[in-house]
Amino acid sequence: MRPDRRQFLGLAGSGLLSAALAPSLIRPARAADGVLELRAMRAEHRLAGPDQPPSHLWTYNGVSPGPEIRVRQGERVRVRLVNELEEPTSIHWHGIRIDNAMDGVAGLTQDAVPQGASFDYDFVVPDAGTYWYHAHNKSWNQVGRGLYGPLIVEEAEPVFGPGNDVTIVLDDWRLTPDGVLDDASFGSLMDWSHGGRLGNWPTVNGENRPAIALRKGEPSRLRLINVSNARILALDPSRFGAKVLAWDGQPLPQATTLGYAPLLLGPAQRVDLMVTPDEDFVLEEVSADEPFPLADFRVAGQGDMTPAPRPLPLNALAEPDLAKAKTVKVDMAGGAMGGAVSITYQGKVLEGEDYRRTRQVWAFNGVANRIDSPLFSVRRGETVIIETTNNTAFAHAMHTHGHHFRVIERSGAEVDDGKPWRDTFLIGPEQTTSIAFVADNPGKWLYHCHMLEHAAAGMTGWFEVT
Ligand code: C2O
Ligand code: CU
Q: Which residues are in the Plastocyanin-like domain (predicted)?
């Protein structure tokens, strides 16, 4: 689960590391009025730097990250997905409590959109916060090639001004020694059965180590989104005096200085930070002996101290009723070094060569990629506690669709930092984590690992709210 410094440095040392000063590739898009067209298409992008050969990415509208969709809380979002790829695709709106029909899960809530066809998404965003969108058909391939973008829902009355609100999309690419996207290793069974597709080349907003401008002495909001397939990023925001405003889009009651380090940001997770910088600083990955730089923040301006902004208003999430909850257990098993487990896939117990043929090597409650029946069903309005036990040798990033949950217990102990609301939680080997939420959104909702190779290789199930 730890980034490999040698891997990161493998390319940096070959002279590809450039302190790019080009403006962010994130293009703002206003989707509130009218329909935003997102064309899934191939495009060239020089991941390793302007002087390096281009990689062939899959993008929305020619850029990765795709256009930033920025709307106000309660607004309607209308997006027309036009598929110009040779492979069917769909879009999921990660973290949005959405109508089931708009959730974008190919094979569960809609059919994948074939080449040349289009699909209209139309939904309202109930919660303010930092979200993202990404392909949800063969995500390990499509997200891994660049099909994702930020979805920012501003508070009904914005708390930070436009110049003090910065989106930071963090990705982790695997490049060949020539500095282009390593195409040949997509789908590697080694990745699927181990820690997922880990890269060797970090980008922020599509660039390696960009410089990002901030205003001196003014509180700014940094919206960090980890879109990588499998990389858990270790960050230490206290090093530049940052406080945590929100996890996975949901604000904390007040901005909080983390009492621990590192902050682990798993695949699909978000954290909103508040910084009030006096001088330049670097956002670093800190899991190795020496920190690895991800982005440089350049601070300029008058430095008149502005007052701290008011706290972010909380979203109206239904409080789980633990006394009346229905508890369901999910046992995670399989993968390399996980010991002998029995895995059923499409009604058959796998053995021998079956693993290689089906590529199903992980399971929830003994079943890989259970799509024909739900993991559990629950009546609308009921509180559910999902108690998940990780009986594998790897960390995972578990995600519920359609609902945010409170993390209430981790390996038998209460979660001390206020049982935060999240939509994705990290679980280490041998850990048990309980989450609780009110199942108030009818439909079929995925519960899966957001390490996208794990999801494809068996760690996908769903629950039904009726
Ligand atoms: Cu980010 Cu099933 O999704
Ligand atoms: Cu996993």
A: 52-156, 357-466
- Between the CA of 421 and the centroid of ligand 1 the distance, in Å, is 17
- Closest-CA residue, ligand 1 atom 3, reads 94
241-270 tens-digit pLDDT: 999 999 999 999 999 999 889 999 999 999
Q: Quote the number of domains for the chain.
A: 2
CATH number at residue 367: 2.60.40.420
Res. 373: pLDDT tops 70: yes
Instruction: Give the residue whose CA is nearest to atom 1 of ligand 1.
Output: 94
108 lines ligand 1 (CB under 6 A): no
Cβ of 446 below 6 Å from ligand 1? yes
* 8 inside domain: no
Give the model confidence (pLDDT) of 15-65 as tens digits.
333 333 233 445 566 655 689 999 999 999 999 988 899 999 999 999 999
CA of 140 to the centre of ligand 1 (A): 11
Q: How remote is the CA of residue 426 from the centroid of ligand 2, in Å?
A: 9
Domain assignment of residue 30, given as a range:
17-156
Residue 386 Cβ contacting ligand 1 at under 6 Å? no
Q: What is the pLDDT of residue 33?
A: 60
Among 156, 186, 221, give the residue marking a domain's end. 156
The contacts found for 17-21 with CB under 8 angstroms, 24 or more apart, are: 17/49, 17/208, 17/209, 18/49, 18/50, 18/51, 18/208, 18/209, 19/209, 19/211, 19/296, 20/49, 20/50, 20/207, 20/208, 20/209, 20/210, 20/211, 21/210, 21/211
The pLDDT score that the predictor gives to residue 388 is: 98
Nearest ligand to the C-alpha atom of residue 228: 1
